[in-house]
């Protein structure tokens, strides 16, 4: 299983990486621009991500724009809706406009408000149909 964490906050990236590491390979990106590039490269290489966690407020390209670009790349590369990457938007904002934009404009799969809690994140991932088995080292 392959994960991508996109967050400009070091502590948030480290926490999510620590939570997901036992279940597979984890890439990190520090802003939306890096995240979109990592996504594009993984898809082109035939090694797509199973899940992306995407912070909303970031420099360069914010999470909302990054998500729209990711969905556009999927369309360009012929990825069907059922095979689209699962994306959990993560934000310190419990804001109905951000929530609306994430789901309806960016086709987010889920939304979590910080602070990130291990069990909440793992439960959210499994509710998306992703089976989390301990990775074999």
UniProtKB/TrEMBL annotation:
Top-level taxon: Bacteria
Modified residues (4-aspartylphosphate): 55
Signal is among the record's keywords: no
Alphabetical UniProt keywords: Phosphoprotein
Keyword Cell membrane: no
Limits of the Response regulatory domain: 2-129
GO biological process: phosphorelay signal transduction system
PANTHER family (alphabetical): TWO-COMPONENT RESPONSE REGULATOR, TWO-COMPONENT RESPONSE REGULATOR ARR22
Name the UniProt record assigns to this protein: Response regulator receiver protein
Organism the protein comes from: Oleidesulfovibrio alaskensis (strain ATCC BAA-1058 / DSM 17464 / G20)
């Amino acid at each position: 299983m392959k994960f991508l964490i996109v967050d400009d906050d070091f502590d948030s990236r480290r926490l999510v990486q620590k939570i997901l590491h036992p279940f597979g390979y984890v890439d990190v990106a520090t802003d939306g621009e890096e995240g979109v590039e990592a996504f594009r490269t993984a898809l082109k290489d035939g090694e797509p991500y199973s899940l992306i966690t995407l912070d909303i407020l970031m420099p360069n390209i914010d999470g909302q724009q990054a998500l729209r670009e990711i969905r556009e790349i999927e369309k360009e590369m012929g990825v069907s809706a059922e095979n689209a990457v699962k994306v959990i938007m993560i934000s310190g904002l419990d804001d109905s406009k951000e929530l609306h934009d994430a789901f309806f404009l960016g086709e987010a799969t889920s939304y979590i408000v910080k602070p990130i809690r291990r069990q909440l994140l793992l439960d959210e991932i499994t509710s998306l149909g992703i089976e989390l088995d301990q990775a074999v080292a």
